[in-house]
Amino acid sequence: MxxxxxxxxxxxxxxxxxxxxxxxxxxxxxxxxxSKPQPDFNELAKIIRxxxxxxxxxxxxxxxxxxxxxxxxxxxxxAAVILGTKEILxxxxxxxxxxxxxxxxxxxxxxxxxxxxQIIWGACASELLGSRICPRQTDSIxxxxxxxxxxxxxxxxxxEELPETFKTLLSSLFEDQCSRNELDLITLHxxxxxxxxxxxxITHPELTLMLLEEWGFPTExxxxxxxxxxxxxxxxxxxCEQAVILGTxxxxxxxxxxxxxxxxxxxxxxxxxxxxxxxxxxxxRIQNRERFKSLCQTF
Length: 299
Description:
The protein has 16 helices and no strands.
């Protein structure tokens, strides 16, 4: 079969179906709460009560060293009073997202572990940069960065169930990663977006947007997801979108490239765009590592 004849519809339908098989209905409700200027704690509490283990996970993170609570918090309402409902919502989305993906990726622990590390670092880094350049939007920045590669993750979960022609690109990505003994899935490879368009008729950011629309993802955040790899045109975007793009690049530099040149380039962009000097960047890196460690240890 000519791979160029593939219709995006052949891929979007199984992904839409998977969205409702892999994730509970609560995930859509959480994303919709995140789109509100001020999430409703009572509504959030109802969602959390649907999953008995979720409350434990949330409180575990609230009591982690990152938040430095003076005393142990044992009640979600108390946690929301101290940290704010938006922060509890972010934790809840992170925990739900990880829990249900991890159960489907358990056949490949390396992929699950390495990919999750990069997702968490990128989301935390995007939020941290956002706190410097557009502080009123940090919550939406974190969620955009966390969910931006949803389509690739679902494709990996469904790999055995996809039509043969749609496996081609995934197989080539895995082969390249296996040669480096690193399975992270979400690192952008050379000409990857062009290959996706050729083989699938659609790119993975476009697929992710389609899936997030199913969840009621706010439209004002879609460009940050759609262009999260467009580092070369970083100056064209709003500060919110820049934070997600730079956080994505930063995560790749830390976990995939492991290249001093990539971190140096990141420092250059931060200095040119926001006058963040090298020593400030190292401070940000330390801060990000603390949040990253707390999240990884909890999940």
